[in-house]
Amino acid sequence: MQHPPMRAIATFLYGRRGFYLSLLLLPPLLWLGTVYLGSLLALLMHSFYAIDEFTARIVPKLTLATYRQLVSQPAHVDIVLRTLGMAVAVTLTAAVVAFPVANYMARYATPRMKAFFYVGVMLPMWTSYLVKVYAWRLVLAKQGVLSWFLDQLGLAPALDAALQTPVIGGPSLASSYLGMFIVFVYMWLPFMILPLTAALERVPQSLLQASADLGARPGQTFRNIVLPLALPGLAAGSVFTFSLTLGDYIIPSVVGAPGYFIGMMVYQQQGTAGNLPLAAAFSVVPIILIAIYLSLAKRLGAFDAL
Amino acid sequence: MTPAIELAGVSRLFGAVRALDNVSLSIAPGEFFALLGPSGSGKTTCLRLIAGFDHPTSGKILLDGDDVTDIPPFERSVNTVFQDYALFPHMDVAENVAYGPKVQGISAPERRRLALEMLELVRLAAFADRAPAQLSGGQKQRVALARALINKPKVLLLDEPLGALDLRLREEMQIELKAIQQKIGITFVYVTHDQGEALSMADRVAVFRDGRVEQLDSPRDLYERPRTAFVARFVGSANVIEGELARRVTGGGRAFAIRAEAIEVLAPGAPLPDGALSCEGLLEDIHYHGATSRWHVRTDAGQTIVAVLPEGAAAAVPHGSRVRLAWSRENIVPLADS
Predict the structure, then answer these.
(1) Which CATH superfamily is A74-299 part of?
(2) Do A215 and B74 make contact, defined as CB atoms within 8 angstroms?
(3) Given an 8 Å threshold on Cβ–Cβ distance, is B100 in contact with A305?
(4) Which residues of chain B make contact with A216, given a CB cutoff of 8 A?
């Protein structure tokens, strides 16, 4: 028997489903609505302000001047393109690397092995992000573990050739875009593996058997059945890897070549440079890119199987 | 004539479990062959081995005289109708049916024509552009059938295809499946745990138990002449009389089967017809089944016997009465020790 006042409350709520539901939803909605969306809107608003050249004060008047500044300066456009290029490369690579792992976890692993893989995939996330980035810098350094290891395998010439490649190369892996790319892929791989595994787990074995039964070779089954049905998972994973790369400022500042990335620009503009409107405008760029990416994915039918 | 399918000493072990234990059988071209058994008896394993989804631990599988034991499913000329239909959710009905021709590289207009032809056969041409999710269970079943038949396989494998349908639809589909099989004349191998389905549709039935074929016969022979107690119970729902009761009734100890509808109920002490066997017991329960009712009688030897009588046969007999069960000696089927 329940305590009488609790019972009275339960009885009161029983007949008032709508009220009960709003009572449950109010705190999270308040959080999401004011703290989360509110600050996002404030950010958006700031990007439509501009800074007074002389006083370095923000003029609270709606203008497109900041955006004009963003798109008219080649250095700014370079930053956007560089970040976008890295995000695309990281996303594609993460998808290719994650697929076999996710497929194994979803379809072939015994329950024990699967648990082991889940822990293995998530274990790096239990460590501090900064520690991992700095650890990678040491791993990739000129006299670091990786170059020593490649040397032992007799692959030092291959590394040198890669580092001499224009754009992606550099004096060492730790100070090249190639090294930065490796760290990005490492960092975001779990965010690709997990949704992809979930999507592949939802594809019944009988569909693959039916495909083979009807005469499809393994490659055809992959193209016609597995890939289309895994697309929602790929889309979800790629939104993570794509947006995380677009927004990150620590990896590009610790590992890699000196060129700026969007995240670093935001960090610098709102801090030392004190140009909050430009920082806000740069923050809006990833939002727009993700929106474009999602609408493209939708048009390609990535969510049809949902 | 070369058999359409031949299994030669096929075993499939899962760890220490013998899912199939040295099974040999041979299925003739054009035959409607049922694999019947309770769950875990090996019938589905058998089907999966024929389809190529699984590999036997030992033994050989021949299709049309060719050893296909090591041939992958996409190179076998058998097609399967799956228990869960396995329709591709991201393709419409016509695309599902056209999948076989598609992977063989047949052009889009041609394979659509073939698909519509198959959909005509299963009377679903009007649904060609629907998504599988918009179909009812019976319609999905027919799409799966059309998709499996479009490659013109020599053998069609059906894995409990009607299991998820309701009774009325199941009966309709049984008639339709049988009609389609007779129309196109290919071999059907049909897995089911429903003995009514196996008996009404198949030319021959293999009854599976614990990974072995317990009996392989025509439906009539299975029903009328079960060889073991298991077959008598599972296929015919017959009474299996054994042990003490068998000794009391026949004088010998050998178990026998007697079908419920072959048993008469008499008043205790009533004169027996010539050549009849009988035993007495207490009427425990009567289950009403419309045209008939099933009488459960607990015999003095302790075993319960079920008799099926026309409804209204003896409405005046109350529960708990003593009754005498009698049946003709020629209706009993002696059983092998199992």
Answers:
(1) MetI-like (1.10.3720.10)
(2) yes
(3) no
(4) 74, 99, 103
Domain ranges of chain B: 5-229, 238-334
Among B332, B334, B295, CA closest to B314: B295
What is the least distance, in Å, from the CA of B37 to any CA of chain A?
Answer: 22
Query: Which token pair is B171?
Result: 């009966």
For residue A206, give the nearest of B75, B84, B151 by CB distance: B84
Least Cα separation, residue A110 to chain B (angstroms): 14
- What is the rounded distance in angstroms from the CA atom of residue A282 to the CA atom of residue B38? 66
pLDDT, tens digit, 9 for 90 and up, residues A19-51 = 889 989 999 999 888 888 998 999 889 899 888
Crossing angle of helices A74-103 and A276-299, in 10° steps, is 40
pTM to 2 decimal places: 0.82
Question: pLDDT band for position A227 (50/70/90)?
Answer: very high
Question: B86 CB near a chain A CB, below 8 Å?
Answer: yes
Find all residues with CB under 8 Å of A274, minimum gap 6, and list them.
A51, A56
CA dist A236 and A193 (Å) reads: 10
Domain B5-229 top-level CATH class: alpha beta
| B66-121 pLDDT, tens digit each | 999 999 999 999 999 999 999 999 999 999 999 999 999 999 999 999 999 999 98
The domain made up of B238-334 has a fold known as: OB fold (Dihydrolipoamide Acetyltransferase, E2P) (2.40.50)
Angle between helices A74-103 and A65-72 (to 10 degrees): 80
User: What is residue A1's predicted lDDT score, i.e. its pLDDT?
Assistant: 54
